[in-house]
Amino acid sequence: MNRHSLSILALAFASSIIAFAAEAAEVKNIVIVHGALADGSGWRKASDILVRRGFKVTVVQEPITSLADDIAATNRVLDLQDGPTLLVGHSYGGMVISEAGHNPVVTGLVYVAAFEPDKGESLLGLASSKPAGGMNIRETKDGKYLYIDPAAFAKDFAADLPKDEANFMARSQVFAAKEAFSARAGDPAWNTKPSWSIVATEDRSINPELERDMAKRAGSKVTEIKASHAVFASQPEKVADFIERAANTL
């Protein structure tokens, strides 16, 4: 074998080693997409736990003006990550991560009391297929956005949170464009990437049976936590534990 052939062989071997190392790289980046009718601040406790355990956590503050806008906002954050990333979505955030999860830095998806749509499905269509306990949803005066009546927020969204925390969430909620809830999903990333799902068994926003059905269809690894829809805030340790296990599995 001549020197040129040896050089080509050495280059190919080095490239394969680099590719293997990248594929086997430890997942230390976690990107969280909050749900509608909430904002990212509710993830503070779970985020702090994960940071103490050595993860770099970023929370996407998507505008919830349209599904496309929210996917774009998530991709902007994903493009800033410096290595393999676990993408986490709560509630409506599951609609977002199912498509943003195609970003090449994403190695897995975690759904937290979230929608796991298949192609062509909308949040409204999924939610109406198995209605939950009921939510006091209202429209803004212009008829374009939706929000939860603050007086009913604790009961409908965060029944297991202390009153002051539930009240803060009620008054910091991000109104959701109706367009975002009716938009149809594209091909889901869970078809090609591993996924995990938390079912909140006391959820009044998404029927827990619907959460179980979607997770089964997607082949997600499931854990169940006795909690409200705001499981990420009321049970941050358990949610952080589950996210960490998912990251360590990749």
TrEMBL record:
Domain spans labelled AB hydrolase-1: 30-241
Organism this protein belongs to: Rhizobium rhizoryzae
Gene3D superfamilies associated with the record: alpha/beta hydrolase
Protein name (database record): Pimeloyl-ACP methyl ester carboxylesterase
The entry's keywords: Signal
Pfam families reported in the protein's UniProt record: Abhydrolase_6
Signal sequence extent: 1-21
Keyword Lipid metabolism: no
